[in-house]
């Protein structure tokens, strides 16, 4: 398999995966979203809450705040030496003790580990009015997207590389012009120049100009969009590590089955 970087930004990585198949690409996508661990609030204990929101609503909002995750510093509780009791290797503590009038934002959360921070500081949690109080302590742990959506690393999707088959050569120049420079002709073949801007609108233009589009079953545009908990590169690297672990486990089970 060949890998080529098509584009890269802060939270998005778009790759070209060539000479592979749907099985591998979709397996990689699923692992990246469900088996790569990240940090999130696991549970919340409220001491005071006289705000307009119930404990459960605030707890849900806290759980869905994306947290910057250092995978080298934490381990899953089920694999920790403390056997899930809770220690510095597998959890950290978040706390709040405030009274109104104030709007509580994600940047106001006090987290025991200074390296664990909300990805965005201006996520509103609750508006606390004058005379109202909020005090709680929350446990932050590693978890996987397969167990709860709050642990999902980001969004990962793919499509087959588009192959363009013009049925009327006379309409090709019109199609190139209508696609705003995103489609070009090289060596009698049509190619997309920028997949960041290419969308269904331009594919519809191609069809209107009698250009058939077939998606390749061996070359793929693979897009990774991170929530900011870990980088796109780390999502990719960790997913490959997880895939290796699963294949090794599968090989071991095959040996014992014989």
Account of the protein in words:
There is one protein chain. 25% of the residues lie in helices and 36% in strands. The chain is α+β, with helices and mostly antiparallel strands. The chain has two domains: 106 residues, RNA polymerase, RBP11-like subunit (Gyrase A, domain 2); 114 residues, Beta Complex (RNA Polymerase Alpha Subunit, Chain A, domain 2). A hairpin with a 2-residue loop joins strand 10 and strand 11. The longest helix is centred in the C-terminal third of the chain and has 26 residues. 24% of the residues are buried. The model has no long low-confidence stretch (mean pLDDT 94).
Concise synopsis of the structure shown:
The chain is an alpha+beta fold and 258 residues long. The protein has helices at residues 22-34, 55-63, 172-178, 200-208, 232-257, and strands at 2-8, 12-18, 38-49, 91-99, 102-105, 110-111, 124-128, 133-143, 154-166, 183-186, 189-192, 211-226.
């Amino acid at each position: 398999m060949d890998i080529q970087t098509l584009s890269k930004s802060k939270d998005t990585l778009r790759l070209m995966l060539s000479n592979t198949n749907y099985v591998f690409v979709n397996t990689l996508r699923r692992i990246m979203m469900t088996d790569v661990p990240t940090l999130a609030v696991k549970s919340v204990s409220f001491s005071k809450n006289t705000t307009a929101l119930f404990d459960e609503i605030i707890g849900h909002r806290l759980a869905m705040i994306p947290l910057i995750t250092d995978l080298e510093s934490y381990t899953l509780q089920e694999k920790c030496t403390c056997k899930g009791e809770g220690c510095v290797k597998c959890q950290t503590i978040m706390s709040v003790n405030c009274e109104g009038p104030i709007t509580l934002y994600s940047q106001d959360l006090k987290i025991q580990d200074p390296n664990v921070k909300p990805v965005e500081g201006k996520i509103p949690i609750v508006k606390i009015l004058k005379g109202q109080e909020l005090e709680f302590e929350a446990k932050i742990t590693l978890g996987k997207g397969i167990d709860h959506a709050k642990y999902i690393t980001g969004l990962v999707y793919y499509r087959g590389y588009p192959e363009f088959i013009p049925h009327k050569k006379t309409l090709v120049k019109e199609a190139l012009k209508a696609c705003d420079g995103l489609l070009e002709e090289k060596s009698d073949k049509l190619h997309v120049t920028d997949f960041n801007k290419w969308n269904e609108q331009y594919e519809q233009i191609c069809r209107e100009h009698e250009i058939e589009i077939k998606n390749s079953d061996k070359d793929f545009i693979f897009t990774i969009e991170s929530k900011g908990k870990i980088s796109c590169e780390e999502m990719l690297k960790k997913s490959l590590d997880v895939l290796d672990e699963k294949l090794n486990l599968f090989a071991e089970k095959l040996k014992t089955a014989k």
